[in-house]
Amino acid sequence: MRAKISMRFLHRFVIAFVLSLMAGGLPAFAAETEPVDTGEVVGQVVSSHDVVAPGQEFYVAVSTVINDHWHTYWANPGDSGEPFDVSFELPSELSAGDIIWPLPKPIPTGPIVNYGFEGSPLFPVHFKVSDTARAGDVLEIKGLVYYLVCYDICVPEEFEFNLPITVGEPVTDNRWAANIRIAINDAPAASDLRATMRLDNETLVVDVLTRDAVSNPYLFPYKPSLNNPSAPQSFAIGERGVQMSLEPGFVLDNGFKGDEQFLLTYDSIVDGQAVRAGHIITAQPGAALDIGAAAMPASVEGGASMTVLTALIGAFLGGLVLNLMPCVFPVISMKALSFARHAHDERSAIRAQGWLYTAGVIATFMLLTIVLLALKAGGTQIGWGFQLQEPWLVGLLALLVFAIGLNLIGAFEFGTGLQNVGGGLAAKEGAMGAFFTGALAVVVATPCTAPFMAGAVGFALAQPAIVTIIVFLALAIGFAAPFLLLSYSPALLAKLPKPGAWMERLKEILAFPMFGAAIWLIWVLSLQGGQSGLLKILMAMLLLGFAIWLMQRGKLWKIVGALAVLGAIALPFTIATASVTTALNLDAKLPKLEWSDAKVQALRAEGRPVFVDFTAAWCVTCKVNELGALADGKVVQAFNDTNTAFLVADWTNRNDAIATELAKYGRSGVPLYLYFAPDNKSVKGDILPQILTVNMLLKTLEGS
Amino acid sequence: MKMTRKTALMLTATAALAFAAPAMAEVTTNTAAPDFTAVDSNGISHSLSDFKGKTVVLEWTNHECPYVVRHYKDGNMQGTQEATKSTLNDDVVWLSVVSSAPGNQGYVTPAQANQVKADKGSNATAVLLDPTGELGRLYGAKTTPHMYVVDPDGTLSYQGAIDDKPRGESSSATNYVKMAAVEMAAGQAVSNPQTTPYGCGVKY
């Protein structure tokens, strides 16, 4: 056996070695210069084509990766600074156009406002090869890239470059051609939108007729000092357009001298995604345009633009849907069972049960919220699901669920009055049971983030405490609502069958989902606490089982049994957090890397698309996605085809870096799926939906 | 839902991108330059009105800003000081102003300010210390360097960049301050009364 294994290993090693040798043979000319680190920026000059034909048009671009917090400047740098610049020294066979500017943003530093870029802006320039170029020529594109890069201080940086391009049969550089094409598509383009400008009471007013539904507009003049960048802009959105009001700069002291060019940027919804786009407009001095009646700004999805009301609605719906989640189902079915048991009793008793269940749910949610707020106030970086980041809590939960399973299967009973399933249960016992069931349901539900919940919860945790509390209250009410309604609906109750022997069978069957939940929690614990953690929890369960059996014997044994129960409960506290093994690596064909912010930056600097999977062992929705859409053959193929890096941020145990990153996207729980397209120039990635589908993933990876 | 949207709309209609810092004034050229009182690096208090009858040049500076460093290293700033004085018969008061807030780049204590002035070979009449940024905001000073020329009767005759070459080909540059001085000496109106200043942002 041993000899067989090493032969297979050797075989695979040889293949891998040969393949890597082949891969090492890259083409002689890659259409890019060596990246240069000028200090705060890593720059390189790239081309869409390795080889160009005479008379052909192509693109050369300057790729820049700027250090976090630093920025470079747009054509109009604003209050201070200098625009990014590239100057070319070209042979006679080549001619270059102007820089195609990416979308800028206002960058304030105290009262000074600049217009510029952060992250990894790409600056394409249109090039043309003259007909006089001959095949075989090597045309050298030389020049200087200069930029002022600032954060709290400013540093002028520059680098020279020499990019040789061969003349012949055109050869595209697939990677850079794709990135350049995306940059050009996203760059603001000249538009034919009608715009006028006027000076009204010491305000520069610009009216623009737009076609999209607009929100958060911002207007950038191309000419420096046409406006005062440090003054705030105000706007009014109409059905047909937008009116921007700016403070004029000294250039307009003597009125307009002709048309002026502006860049209008705004958020809009394209294909259900929030996009920020820009349009270059030419405004003519003239009277106001009719932008139509006041219109509603395009509602943009995302943590930042959620209101308290939408968060409350989201939380309520999330609570409703939470009832259907796999971790909640065993507990809920227990509750349904007890309802069936009481359905033909007094209405008031049933309603009381419903209210007590609701009380249990609300009380537990509020307790969790208060603990969460207290921990956050203390500066701990935690989020939703924080309960399951503690091994001792997971252990206790596993023991509890195991005990409930044993109860359901008939290994023991609570008290003595429960022997007769049919009827006459003490109202007191019923009340305790209802409250306890509510509390239990909440505790077990926390790791499952239902759709709707993530956004609402993330939003709530970033708000003042009172908002957090009412959002979680909405969640609790949504969660309890189905049963409360059931307890009030005589029609539904009448539909439930009369008590009988079948109930005993059902009770026993429901034990198995409970054991299933216990097994899942054990698996989570094995990831958190390693093999010793696994052993301890299994021993604790054995002890618990034995204790339960003991307690049904004589009085003396009851005491021993109680001690055994204590011992079982103590064991989870001894489980130490082992280093977490990364999430399920089902597919050897798709390597999964450990996430870190630095790694994302490095991969993006290489021009690779990046996919980040924020997950945790205790997050059921995450596992469903990982075993489903993310493991699909076509998706794996797409990852490899597009050279997309798959990074996993495992939040099974507490991790400040991950919690901070989640907070950046307005989230405080998992899952979160991020996609960084190669053309994405901002520091943030695109957020994908929480339930992943194969089609959606293929569309994201391969482009629409 | 409708009510909330309406409220949101009302808010957005009047919304502005609010910035935490107090507003920056804008001084109009060819109007009276705002009077001010500031303390220099030797503890002496100066007011603009003290200098009536003389030309006053205000030079916003930050001794660590690459643009300021270059102007002083090339001798350009000192040359401008010299040229202005000689053109206007020595009736020139040159005030360097430091508006960097404590902890920010360019902030200097009085002793440091004197040291920097000596090291750079500056011939400024005085270095005004403005750590609260009050003087900077009064004049709308945005960059270092940012130049203001006030004529003898207190009118602001020039504000903006020192010259038209941000990247430093100083020899071929048009020096707006020198040009303004020459025109003022000849009794002419300043041909470029205002230009867009360049440099690092003032570190308020």
Characterization of this structure:
The complex is a heterodimer of chains A (704) and B (204). Chain A is built from 17 helices and 26 strands. Chain A is an alpha+beta fold. In chain A, the strands form 5 sheets. In chain A, strands 14, 15, 16, 17, 18, 19, 20 and 21 form an 8-stranded mixed β-sheet that branches. In chain A, strand 8 and strand 9 form a beta hairpin. Chain A is elongated, with a radius of gyration of 32 Å. About 5% of the residues of chain A have low confidence. Chain B has 204 residues and is of the alpha+beta class. Chain B is built from 6 helices and 9 strands. In chain B, helix 3 runs parallel beside helix 6. At the A-B interface, strand 8, strand 9, strand 12 and strand 18 of A face helix 1 and strand 9 of B.
Brief overview, please?
Chain A has 704 residues and is an alpha+beta fold.
Mean pLDDT of chain A: 82
Overall geometry of chain A:
elongated
Number of E strands of chain B: 9
- The amount of beta strand of chain B, in percent, is 15-25%
Using DSSP, what is the number of strands of chain A?
26
Largest sheet of chain B: 7 strands, mixed
Gross morphology of chain B is globular
Q: Structural class of the secondary structure composition of chain B?
A: alpha+beta
Strand arrangement, largest sheet of chain B? 2-1-5-4-3-7-8
Topology overview:
The complex is a heterodimer of chains A (704) and B (204).
Chain A: H1 2-24, E1 36-37, E2 41-47, E3 49-52, E4 57-66, E5 72-78, E6 85-89, E7 94-99, E8 105-109, E9 112-117, E10 122-129, E11 138-150, E12 154-167, E13 171-172, H2 174-186, E14 189-190, E15 195-200, E16 203-209, E17 215-221, E18 234-237, E19 241-246, E20 260-270, E21 273-285, H3 308-322, H4 329-342, H5 347-377, H6 391-409, H7 427-445, H8 453-462, H9 465-488, H10 490-495, H11 501-550, H12 555-570, E22 592-594, H13 597-605, E23 610-615, H14 620-627, H15 633-641, E24 645-650, H16 656-664, E25 672-676, E26 686-688, H17 694-702
Parallel strand pairs in A: 3-12, 14-21, 15-21, 22-24, 23-24
Antiparallel strand pairs in A: 1-2, 2-4, 3-13, 4-10, 5-9, 6-11, 7-10, 8-9, 11-12, 15-16, 16-19, 17-20, 18-19, 20-21, 23-25, 25-26
Chain B: H1 2-14, E1 37-40, E2 45-47, E3 55-60, H2 66-73, H3 76-87, E4 92-98, H4 110-120, E5 126-129, H5 134-139, E6 143-144, E7 146-150, E8 156-160, H6 176-185, E9 200-201
Parallel strand pairs in B: 3-4, 4-5
Antiparallel strand pairs in B: 1-2, 1-5, 3-7, 6-9, 7-8
Helix pairs in contact in B: 3-6
